[in-house]
Amino acid sequence: MTPVLVSLAIIFTQLSLLAFGGGNTILPEMQRQVVEVHQWMSAQEFSAMFALAQAAPGPNMMVVTLVGWHVAGWPGVLVTTLAKFGPSSIVTGLALHAWERFKDKPWRVKVQAGLIPMTVGLVAASAALITLATAHEWMLAVITAVVAIAGFRLRIHPLWLLAAGALVGLTGIGQG
Amino acid sequence: MLAPTLPAASPSPSTEATVTPTVMDLFLGFLGLGMIGFGGVLPLAHRLVVEKKHWLNEAEFTDLLGLCQFLPGGNILNLAVAIGMKFHGPRGAMASLFAIIAAPSAVVIALGSIYTRFNGPHLQHMFAGLAAAAAGLLISTALKIAVPIRRKPIAILIACLFFVAIAVLRLPLLPTMAVLIPLSMAVTWRAAR
């Protein structure tokens, strides 16, 4: 393994085990590691990868695959994917038995309630960082704002909002 | 075993009999889920696992989902692992996990190659628009999950502390969690009393 692959493995194993509350909570740490600490890409490139990953089907953490691919090609894909999805899956597998035993314990509900504010804070942080790196021209800021309101207020499938954003972007209006 | 077409007819859903999938059933089921799951996979997972295939009944699904939300990792990935594990141990878990990420990985790498290979101004504009929309969706997600704590000042304060530490101060996640999670637990438990 090259030093880059080792770094990827360490970063994504850590992220895998810290991802309480789902994938979006670790987005800021992922960005900090690959943009600021290792400087493998710009913040803007990271946001573009996040966007591409959102346009793909399946679980919403496919940005992991793209980061691995960008940094180290196919070996990078393999390493980041294994490191990101392996450790948390092993924890899930092992926890399955304990879960059956502690099913009716009241502390379980309380621990879950205690994690909610963290999830809210971390997802809001993800949103802020991705928006700052993305919406740097007025039309892009408009797209972000409209999609944010539409996504919150209306029951529109996210894919339509992404497609609409891509179409408005394609016109080039309001971009440099 | 109940007829697959009559799941709702059962008077007590928690004792409703379920179908045991083979490893191949798990693989194909989650492969399909990975291919169609745009945006949110969870409602589709529920339809597949409970309504269509009857691998789990409603109560079992809710219980497993509770576990998956409680553990690190994406809920839907954990759910795939837990269901695979429940029926066929590590072999089932690996089949389910691999199946659910295989197709999306292929799609995302294809999109990535398009993005890097045909990097003209039109494509750049289009991807800039896509990225802006993805950012907007993330904001809407943050707003939606904030709704349940909107009348809880202490929870809002803790959410703000996390936000400032991570987004403004750019502190590493691990030490931030080590300090703020116990704090969050402590005040949530006190408030619940």
UniProtKB/TrEMBL annotation, chain A:
Localization terms from the record: Cell membrane
Protein name (database record): Chromate transporter
Family named by the database record: Belongs to the chromate ion transporter (CHR) (TC 2.A.51) family. Belongs to the heat shock protein 70 family.
Chief site of localization: membrane
Topology relative to the membrane: Multi-pass membrane protein
GO CC terms in record: plasma membrane
Swiss-Prot/TrEMBL keywords: Cell membrane, Membrane, Transmembrane, Transmembrane helix
Alphabetical list of InterPro entries matching this protein: CHR_Transporter (IPR052518), Chromate_transpt (IPR003370), Heat_shock_70_CS (IPR018181)
Transmembrane segment boundaries: 6-27, 48-71, 77-99, 111-132
One GO MF term: chromate transmembrane transporter activity
